[in-house]
Design a protein that fits this description.
This protein is mainly alpha-helical. The radius of gyration is 16 Å and the shape is globular. 46% of the residues lie in helices and 0% in strands. It has 5 helices and no strands. It has one domain. The termini are close together.
Length: 123
Amino acid sequence: MDQHDIFTGHYRLLQRNQAARQRLILDPKAGLNEYFGSGTVPEGQFQVEIIPQEPDTITILLPSPIEGDTSNEALDAACRRIFDILFTDGVGGYLIPDDSLTWVLRDMRSNILSRSQGTAFNL
């Protein structure tokens, strides 16, 4: 199973299986560990939030608030990546609001991919 299939399979499960979807929404870390295996989500002081897409809802992701420095440079840095994702057939992915969390996601994906060698997930 290649990397694309692993993550696509998970999204497909979440589209078909309401119980799995609800478990992931209620406790994202436990839901990811349930599907991909214990220890998938590294320990640390961060949260994982699930925003389920609904057919009749526009979802707005706000940039993290900035504290202290409100100079134009700080505001530009806080809002430098603004995207309108216009899909009518669904979109999934990760929003990483801080560079340090990039490594958390990299570790999660590495854990998943290392487990996938010879392992079949519940697709």
